[in-house]
Design goal:
This protein is mostly helical and 132 residues long. The chain has 5 helices and 2 strands. The longest helix has 26 residues.
């Protein structure tokens, strides 16, 4: 947590609940999440292991800014229109959107294969996943 925000927020980390207070069940759910992601990770690495320079989709300079958090009241700023126009003109914004959509599509396919269906509210309010 940046030092200037720590006083306002009151904590150093943001945590996402695994939906249980039982440490054994929480560890199991964490392990399950890693197990679900492992094949996708391995596939992605294998695609470019021999020729990493051929990978052109994932821009490492944009990865950490993929899902930026807006500060409270951001949408109320007086120059919001100009800010949005400037962002739209930035080629990195489109690249981040494409990368985020690619991640979301891959995650949705992986979850669906496991019988887990997610929607937009689930992504905002994790861990609201429903099994079907």
């Amino acid at each position: 947590m940046p030092a200037d925000l720590l006083a306002r927020v009151g904590k150093r980390e943001e945590k996402i609940s695994l939906g249980t207070k039982d440490p054994v069940l929480a560890k199991s759910r964490e392990r399950e999440a890693h197990e679900m992601a492992a094949p996708l990770y391995a596939w992605w690495i294998d695609q470019y292991r021999d020729e990493p320079s051929q990978q052109a989709f994932w821009r490492i300079d944009l990865g950490e800014h993929l899902w930026p958090r807006r500060p409270p009241g951001w949408s109320l700023q007086p120059n919001l229109g100009a800010t949005l126009i400037n962002e739209a003109a930035d080629p990195a914004v489109g690249a981040r959107r494409d990368m985020a959509e690619g991640c979301t599509d891959q995650a949705d396919a992986l979850l669906k294969h496991r019988g887990i269906v997610v929607d937009e509210s689930d992504r905002r309010n994790s861990p609201g996943l429903s099994r079907r």
